[in-house]
Amino acid sequence: MPATVTNLTEQYISDRSESVATFTLPRKRLCLDIYGPLSSCLFDSSLERLVDYLIVPVPTTTILRNIDRRFPKCQSKNPADRNPCQSSLEKRQQNSRVNETASAPRGPDRTEKLPAEIIFIIFDNLELMEDALIFGLTCRRIWQFARRSVCEWQRKRIGPWAGEHLVAVSDHCDDDDYPPGLFSAEEINQLMERWAEEVSWRYDWESTFWRFNISSFALERVVQHITMPERTPLSRLRSNLDRQGRLPAALEDAIWPEIRVDKSVYAPADEVWMLRNLTTRELVRTEAVAIKQDLIHGPYIERRGFHHLLLIRTAWGNPELREITRYRNHPPVPCRGPWAGHRFEICTAKHHGADVSATGAEWSDVSGDAKAELDNLWEAAYGPDWRNVEWDHKRHRPPSPQWLLGAPDRG
What does the DSSP assignment read for 174-211? Predict the structure, then answer.
């Protein structure tokens, strides 16, 4: 171990007990419920959940196609019913040819003959997804519309932080020190007044005892802490139907695979994914972030992912407390991240291409700069052979970097 590394151990222990980081949306007053020392979060998977919050899922039609590919039995046997987006005129013509000699339909058959426009209106006016699902069981043709409606409902609940102002805050920030452009002077004054009122009312303390700054957006009394729900929207829907006794037991196992939207269908690994900075119109591709290309699984990258890049580029804290790689020629971890307070999303190359075609906006590919920044930091941590460091699969993180050896382990 180099002597310079040993000299940093004491500095790391001090930083570790003082500099804690997490991701927050200051303007929305939301914060991840995961904290960790900045020095450690940079090299483990503590904050990888951020990727789930920033994903722009593939379109609903692609989701349905991916489900059908996974479960071929989900596809309707009637070609006219496989695509709910098919024009209503074409469907009516096909149905007319098939049933031109049939007698007037009765009962459920009338529902099956409804024009597509009417079916869409019905689904648009059903406020509860439970009602939409039950209505979809009327017949196979209606079920195709119900599948689309339920999948779109789930899709809208994916990536709730995409497009919002993001900051990786430290618990040590100076007063009146905010990322540029995040708040106006008037907004800051309003926040400070609200903070003073809350402190005085809740804790009977002098408002000047607690100063409001960007670190305050990681406090439970200031923001709502967000946890990844243990149950998906679909599982909650299923529980509601079970409790109401509205879904026939014989149909349960048959319908759920057809409408379950999970990562494999809304963030498929066979698509090309990228991180986009919507504020500066810059993008970073997955291959620039990944340590090895075989570790890329769509937007999810093993060992080193988009959340690591966002952590160092959106970090905001006191410079004197954040430098942990000050030896040799390696750059320090930034405490004034150039992307702090910017808006982001993780999307497919197809989504990006469609956006560029629609808006004509020019984007800069900064994958090379991002790769160099991450590689330099990892080499500073693990040495020249950093790509081949063995991973601790039990705890989902690599061993402690060289400068951390001898420091207390987080466990």
Answer: -TT---TTSS-HHHHHHHHHHHHHHHHHHH---GGGS-
The helix/strand/coil state of 358 is: helix
Helices of type H across 260-366: 263-266, 286-289, 306-313, 319-322, 349-359
d(CA 305, CA 312): 12
Each domain of the chain, given as residue ranges in start order, spans 3-57+162-178+269-404, 60-90+111-159+232-266
- Alpha-carbon distance 50 to 70, whole Å? 27
Contact yes or no for 173/222 (Cβ under 8 A): no
- What are the φ/ψ torsions at residue 23 (nearest 5 degrees)? -95, 140
pLDDT one-digit tens code per residue, 134-178: 888 888 889 999 999 999 999 999 999 999 999 988 766 776 778
Q: Which two tokens stand for residue 164?
A: 């919002």
Distance separating alpha carbons of residues 166 and 314, to the nearest angstrom: 7
Residue with tokens 């699969």: 393
Residue 169's DSSP bridge partners are 22, 316
The H or E element that residue 129 is part of is helix 129-136
Tokens for 291?
């340590």
Give the tens place of pLDDT for each residue, 172-227: 677 677 888 888 888 877 777 776 666 555 555 454 445 666 766 666 555 666 66
Burial grade of 96 (CB within 10 A; 0-12, 13-18, 19 or more): exposed
* Residue 297 DSSP SS3: strand
> Cβ atoms within 10 A of the Cβ of 49, count?
16
pTM here is 0.77
C-beta separation of 349 from 274 below 8 A: yes
Q: How far apart are CA 335 and CA 338, in angstroms?
A: 9
